[in-house]
Amino acid sequence: MRGLRGRLRILAGIVVLAAVVVATVNPRAAFNAIQLPLYALFSTTRMVLAYLLSLVFAITYGATAAANKRATVIMLPVLDVLQSVPILGFFPAALVFFVVTFQGSPIGIELAVVFLIFTSMAWNMAFGVYESLTTIPVDLEAAAASFGLRGMLRFRLLALPAAIPKLVYNSILSWSNGWFFLVASETFTAFGGTYTRPGLGSFITNAGIAGDSTGIALGVGVLAAVVLALDTFVWRPLGVWSERFRMETTGHEVPRVPSPYERFRWLPRFPRLRQTFVIAVQPVVTKYRRASVRLDRTFSAHRRVIREIRFLDLAMFSAILLLVVVAGLIGLVRLFLTPLPPAAAELPRAAASSFIRLGLAYAIALAWTIPLAAWIGRNPRGSRYVTPVLEVAASLPATALLPIIVGFALFATASLGPAAELSAVLIALFSMQWYLLFNLIAGVRGIPEDLNEAARSFGLRGRAYWRRVLLPAMVPSLLTGSITAWGAGWNALIVSEYIPFLNPPPHVSGLGYLLDIATFNKPPDNEMILLTILMMIVIVLAMNKLLWRPLYKRAAVKYRVEV
Amino acid sequence: MEAPLLEVKGVTKSYFENGKEFKVLDLIRFELAERDFVCVVGPSGCGKSTLLRIIVGLEPPTSGQVLFEGSPIRADNPQVAMVFQSFALFPWLTVAQNVELGLEAQGIPPEDRHARARKFVDAVGLTGFENAFPRELSGGMKQRVGLARALAIEPLLLCMDEPFSSLDPLTAQNLRDEILQLWANPDLPPKAVLMVTHSIEEAVYLADRVIVLSSRPGRMVAELEIDLPRPRNRKEPEFYGWVDEIYSLIV
């Protein structure tokens, strides 16, 4: 570990040296780079705002859905759909809404960006809260009830702590998801124009448009540094802290999901810096704790008021939901009452080619992740130096790599058509592969030592070992990874099938392309936007319901390893 | 005449699945007075734990009634405390915080809470572990915390659901003896104990009265007064006489 830290220091030295060299050789790039810290701050602020919004939403939504059986019937399917649809498809609509509401002021675009990131974070966090609240052990619930924990006290002592492990876990996933959408939304082309908000994402995109390879490298490098720094100083400590809220599994189930706090284990931990921080924050925490206790008392004294507030909340939520559903239905009816636009005839073919593209990327991802995961999972020592590289690579959102991938595709193929095709598949691959890899590694690591030893003592080796132990153990995590990977893939289509920043813009036929040109039109082709999104939603939901869920159910019965 | 501490009046419990009725408990009827130590024994799956959950008010019976001091039982009744087979400790709270749980819910100020928690942590022999987290404790120590938490609210009735089943035999035996010691101390709560177990030997060792349930649906087969003198010796023929009798009732 120490050697690794030394190496990190050397790496930092090289980065500084490279910066000096760049500054002397290319002063213009250096000038641009000076703005980078500010851009990083802007981008991070957007992420934080979106995250806080998601947190409030997740706790309220998840807790309401868990507490109220009647609400669950509506709230859960809504969440399920929102979680699995390609969110990026909704961005144009959100942009229209916010831009019109704020009459074209930058605040509107800013809010639209935050809103988009929010939509990429919130659903799975809400699911996390719901799941943890509904899987609190029966006895713990009974203990809480029989010792008279009610209202705010129950929430503080039972519900919130119980939700923390999953909430933190899903937050880590949501956060890295958020980067993808941040980069995609800081520069967005719609309604015949391009909207840009200053930030790391737009910096990278602009460098890509200008063909400024130093700029691209700098932007991607700073993005990676910000992502890694936040992982080191925020998410990893949070993950470790959340472990103490984990229920003790008395040999019932083994978590088969990858533990995100196991990732980046090799990063330095800066104990002294953290200690100073904790000491500095302590008074605030104490004050907050006291205030919350006081709040608690006041609240429990006015139980009736609380009940009314909760009722009001629910009423408001149902009213908003009703409004959205009705508006959506009216839109749909209007859409199908008028004759379909001529471009709609292209939809089936576009869907097919998008699907094939994703299938190809998925196949490539499987081909390399399965062997690598098997190797990493079984050789923790040997993979010590491989894992950090993979984790840094995975921390970069595919959208940030877009200029590099497109550049590579243009360089590798002769003409524009094949280059566009290659880059589309590559971007899909980069969006999908990491979900598979890290899920699979966790699957392999989850094989109980007993099982491995039994296999060894019966002389299972080579192909027999793969067939009887390794592959079966990978199946559940492969399916989990696949669902997430395909979800990410559909989102990637929207940025990968049409790249408006280049002239002439490379494009391939597909749903993402149709959506992009419909958005790009001025005025935007609302019917086509809606139809394309609908098409995507139908495909994604159909795949989830007809393929992944049944497979997962069977796998859960057949391949679950009980300890 | 004053109402007995606890009255279980014709409790029946059924579950419904696809319109079909599955009866778990059938017309359970008994009473508990002060200074009673009663064990409910039965084969696994006879609905013992369900019965206990109904008695403490965590689940409603399909028909019948549970009265505590003459009025229907409520789950948050501060006079009734529960000890769980799985310990049911809050993993994010320390030993002391776990013990204070019921007191906190009753709105007792922090200073009093701490003092009372310390008293019962001492009583179960966990002095010095106040600030440990449950995961740092052995199974036996965890159940001591569970016991202290139940005693800390100074209940009239202590209900225990297979409290020793997740412990190794030696630890379980130690804890049984300690419970009897605590029980013998008139200064400490509770006034009565109701315990559910599948171990006949354990029931005969601990209880004044044993209620025997049949398997599926649980019906009362017998209610036996165990009049052996304490401390009881497992090697004595009288002890085995009782165990054999209950065993034959169940089989």
Give your account of this protein's structure.
The complex is a heterodimer of chains A (563) and B (251). Chain A has 563 residues and is mainly alpha-helical. Chain A folds into 4 domains: 34 residues; 232 residues, MetI-like fold (Orthogonal Bundle); 49 residues; 218 residues, MetI-like fold. Chain A contains 20 helices and 2 strands. Chain A has a two-stranded antiparallel ribbon with strand order 1-2. Chain A is globular and about 75 Å long. The relative contact order of chain A is 0.10. The longest helix of chain B has 16 residues. Helices cover 33% and strands 25% of the residues of chain B. In chain B, strand 9 and strand 10 form a beta hairpin. In chain B, helix 4 packs across helix 5 and helix 7 packs across helix 8. Chain B has 251 residues and is α/β, with parallel strands linked by helices. Chain B has a domain of 134 residues: Rossmann fold (3-Layer(aba) Sandwich). The mean pLDDT of chain B is 84. The chains are: A mainly alpha (563), B alpha/beta (251). Chains A and B meet through helix 7 and helix 8 of A and strand 6 and helix 3 of B.
Strand pairing plus helix content of chain A: what structural class? mainly alpha
- Name the CATH homologous superfamily of the domain at 6-79 and 191-250 in chain B: P-loop containing nucleotide triphosphate hydrolases
Biggest sheet of chain A, open or closed, and with what strands and sense? 2 strands, antiparallel
Query: What is the overall pLDDT average of chain B?
Result: 84
CATH level-two architecture of the largest domain in chain A: Orthogonal Bundle
